[in-house]
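--- STAGE predict ---
source: upstream dedup step, 1 unique chain passed
mode: sequence only
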Amino acid sequence: MRRFITIFPYAKNIHLIKDVGMLPFILHKQCSYDASLACYNDGNYSYLETEVKGLKLIFIPKIFRISTLDVFLFLLINFRKYDIVQCYHFEKQSLLILSFFKLLKWITFSSGFTFLKLDAVDRIKNKNPSFITKQLSKKINLISVETSRIHHYLNQTNLLFNKVAYVPNGFYSVDESRIDFNTKDDLIITVGRIGIFEKNNELLLESFKDFSRFNENWKLEIIGPVEQEFNVYIDKYFEQYPMLRNRVVFSGSISDRAELQSRYEKAKIFVLTSIEEGFPLVFLEAIRSGCTIVSSRLTAAYDITADEIYGALFKIGDSKELTEKLLHLINDQEKLKTDCLKIQNFAYEKYSWKNIAVIVDNLINER
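--- STAGE serialize ---
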């Protein structure tokens, strides 16, 4: 049995469920790995008994002021217990941790496998790694990235001095039944931290104002915690467009996973207006529920829409084009209905963690 550990010191609830905890969890469940997640004891990990039941959580003692030193000490004591160590992000901390694990294994004449999973935004294209960074990167057994375009770019340029594998982010669902389009409402939703600069939520609201002139039924629901400063914008928006008070709903943060899932299931269209993102996990939550994606031209958006087969992309910051895309979609209800099932099948085929775990296991075996 392979002994696998993900090291992510700052994994709190949101990371544990949506991101870093899922890979070791699914490798344990799907591929019989003895898998663990190592992090600081910084939160309430109640979801261990629900979404990731069976995941082994190990707490890293906080001793030093620098988290990398805490991890070094943790590995020094525990490295013999693991065959594979995995970290996230192309950062010095991750490279040093993985290199330290390899060094400990080499000193003790044993083999160790290192896995770096990137969470890459387009900014990685502007990186110019130092000589030391390149040498550390070369020694990593497996580096993966989650979008096909950045995967192609990294291998074409050899930026990381290592062959990079394509491993998308995924979702896990016990119930794989499909959502019937006829149970959906004429509803557009977006989910995230509302009002932060990167999300560019103003664009969606301005676009919906124009979009609403051409129909009477469609509504917009905005889900997520609202930044305090953004409330000023919201108040002015409704003062200026009072006719939209009953058509634009701010639902706030929804922490109950089942409740949030029900909102996706009711929506026909999911919109993301971000200026920049890595791989938004809200995309996965949306397509597993059969939502058609309308997004700014983010790198991940090309993958999640299968190059616009199952959605539409618009130029970043272009409110007019967003309005045009939305109007085009709602005027073809038959396509929305047909695509609803196709999108769900596409989601389960390409982005289910059950399938991705097999890909990761094969990559580990090959390297």
